[in-house]
Amino acid sequence: MFSSSQVSFIALQLLALLPPTPANNQTSSCRCIPGDACWPDHSARSQLNNTVHGALIATTPLAL
Asked: How far apart are CA 53 and CA 49, in angstroms?
């Protein structure tokens, strides 16, 4: 099993591979937020979660 720091490191490495895709082709300070077309769907998130043995934590953004 992975430690939480190892999971965080793996998740950051995987996120670094994602291309910067602004929502709705607009310049934004955020890459993606839930509800944007660039936000991973349930299937993609589930696949990523499987690669880290179920250690992803679903979060809610503080502000949209």
From this structure: 6
